[in-house]
Specification:
The structure is a single chain. By secondary structure, this protein is mainly α. It has one domain. 86% of the residues lie in helices and 0% in strands. The longest helix is centred in the C-terminal third of the chain and has 29 residues.
Amino acid sequence: MFYVKLYLCTLLAFFAVDMVWLGLVARGFYQKHLGFLLRTPPNWTAAIVFYLMFVAGLLVFVVVPGLQAGSAKKVLILGALFGLITYATYDLTNQATVKDWPAIVTVVDLCWGGVLATAVSYLGFLAGKWLQ
Protein backbone atom coordinates (compact mmCIF):
# COMPACT_ATOMS: atom_id res chain seq x y z
CA MET A 1 0.00 0.00 0.00
CA PHE A 2 2.98 2.29 0.62
CA TYR A 3 3.91 2.28 -3.07
CA VAL A 4 0.35 3.00 -4.21
CA LYS A 5 0.20 6.02 -1.89
CA LEU A 6 3.67 7.12 -2.97
CA TYR A 7 2.68 6.81 -6.63
CA LEU A 8 -0.49 8.84 -6.12
CA CYS A 9 1.35 11.59 -4.20
CA THR A 10 4.04 11.78 -6.86
CA LEU A 11 1.47 11.76 -9.68
CA LEU A 12 -0.37 14.64 -8.03
CA ALA A 13 2.89 16.58 -7.66
CA PHE A 14 3.78 15.95 -11.31
CA PHE A 15 0.36 17.06 -12.50
CA ALA A 16 0.41 20.23 -10.39
CA VAL A 17 3.92 21.29 -11.40
CA ASP A 18 3.46 20.49 -15.10
CA MET A 19 0.08 22.22 -15.29
CA VAL A 20 1.61 25.43 -13.95
CA TRP A 21 4.24 25.17 -16.69
CA LEU A 22 1.91 24.23 -19.53
CA GLY A 23 -1.03 26.37 -18.47
CA LEU A 24 0.67 29.54 -17.31
CA VAL A 25 4.35 29.77 -18.11
CA ALA A 26 4.94 28.11 -21.48
CA ARG A 27 1.55 28.15 -23.18
CA GLY A 28 2.39 31.04 -25.48
CA PHE A 29 5.87 29.69 -26.07
CA TYR A 30 4.66 26.41 -27.54
CA GLN A 31 1.92 28.14 -29.52
CA LYS A 32 4.48 30.51 -31.00
CA HIS A 33 7.05 27.87 -31.91
CA LEU A 34 4.93 24.78 -32.55
CA GLY A 35 1.53 26.20 -33.41
CA PHE A 36 1.79 24.65 -36.88
CA LEU A 37 2.00 21.20 -35.27
CA LEU A 38 -0.30 21.53 -32.26
CA ARG A 39 -3.40 19.40 -32.07
CA THR A 40 -6.66 20.92 -30.85
CA PRO A 41 -7.79 19.45 -28.60
CA PRO A 42 -4.78 17.47 -27.38
CA ASN A 43 -4.89 13.68 -27.41
CA TRP A 44 -5.70 13.32 -23.70
CA THR A 45 -5.34 9.54 -23.74
CA ALA A 46 -1.74 9.83 -24.90
CA ALA A 47 -1.06 12.62 -22.38
CA ILE A 48 -2.46 10.56 -19.49
CA VAL A 49 -0.47 7.48 -20.51
CA PHE A 50 2.68 9.62 -20.62
CA TYR A 51 1.99 11.02 -17.14
CA LEU A 52 1.35 7.57 -15.69
CA MET A 53 4.50 6.10 -17.26
CA PHE A 54 6.74 9.06 -16.43
CA VAL A 55 5.76 8.96 -12.76
CA ALA A 56 6.34 5.20 -12.66
CA GLY A 57 9.81 5.81 -14.10
CA LEU A 58 10.53 8.49 -11.51
CA LEU A 59 9.58 6.12 -8.73
CA VAL A 60 11.55 3.14 -10.03
CA PHE A 61 14.70 4.98 -11.07
CA VAL A 62 14.80 7.98 -8.74
CA VAL A 63 12.48 8.21 -5.74
CA VAL A 64 12.60 4.65 -4.38
CA PRO A 65 16.40 4.38 -4.76
CA GLY A 66 16.68 7.75 -3.02
CA LEU A 67 14.43 6.61 -0.19
CA GLN A 68 16.38 3.36 0.17
CA ALA A 69 19.62 5.32 0.39
CA GLY A 70 18.03 7.97 2.61
CA SER A 71 19.57 10.58 0.33
CA ALA A 72 17.88 13.71 -0.95
CA LYS A 73 21.08 14.50 -2.85
CA LYS A 74 20.76 11.22 -4.78
CA VAL A 75 17.13 12.05 -5.61
CA LEU A 76 18.06 15.50 -6.89
CA ILE A 77 20.88 14.22 -9.09
CA LEU A 78 19.00 11.22 -10.47
CA GLY A 79 15.86 13.30 -10.95
CA ALA A 80 17.72 15.88 -13.01
CA LEU A 81 19.34 13.18 -15.13
CA PHE A 82 16.09 11.27 -15.61
CA GLY A 83 14.26 14.41 -16.73
CA LEU A 84 17.04 15.51 -19.04
CA ILE A 85 17.37 12.10 -20.68
CA THR A 86 13.65 11.44 -21.07
CA TYR A 87 12.90 14.86 -22.49
CA ALA A 88 15.97 14.61 -24.73
CA THR A 89 14.58 11.37 -26.14
CA TYR A 90 11.51 13.20 -27.38
CA ASP A 91 13.05 16.51 -28.40
CA LEU A 92 16.24 15.29 -30.01
CA THR A 93 14.28 12.67 -31.97
CA ASN A 94 12.03 15.47 -33.20
CA GLN A 95 15.06 17.64 -33.93
CA ALA A 96 16.42 14.80 -36.06
CA THR A 97 13.23 13.82 -37.86
CA VAL A 98 10.69 16.68 -37.95
CA LYS A 99 11.20 19.29 -40.62
CA ASP A 100 11.53 22.80 -39.18
CA TRP A 101 11.52 21.61 -35.56
CA PRO A 102 12.67 24.73 -33.63
CA ALA A 103 15.97 24.29 -31.81
CA ILE A 104 14.76 26.69 -29.11
CA VAL A 105 11.99 24.24 -28.23
CA THR A 106 14.56 21.50 -27.73
CA VAL A 107 16.71 23.68 -25.48
CA VAL A 108 13.76 24.87 -23.39
CA ASP A 109 12.26 21.38 -23.12
CA LEU A 110 15.55 19.83 -21.99
CA CYS A 111 15.85 22.46 -19.27
CA TRP A 112 12.21 22.00 -18.29
CA GLY A 113 12.51 18.20 -18.24
CA GLY A 114 15.42 18.45 -15.82
CA VAL A 115 13.68 20.98 -13.57
CA LEU A 116 10.33 19.14 -13.64
CA ALA A 117 11.76 15.72 -12.85
CA THR A 118 14.02 17.12 -10.12
CA ALA A 119 11.17 18.98 -8.44
CA VAL A 120 8.69 16.11 -8.69
CA SER A 121 11.26 13.56 -7.56
CA TYR A 122 12.07 15.64 -4.51
CA LEU A 123 8.38 16.07 -3.70
CA GLY A 124 7.94 12.31 -4.12
CA PHE A 125 10.92 11.74 -1.82
CA LEU A 126 9.37 14.02 0.83
CA ALA A 127 6.05 12.21 0.46
CA GLY A 128 7.84 8.89 0.86
CA LYS A 129 9.58 10.04 4.02
CA TRP A 130 6.23 11.26 5.37
CA LEU A 131 4.46 8.02 4.44
CA GLN A 132 7.10 5.85 6.11
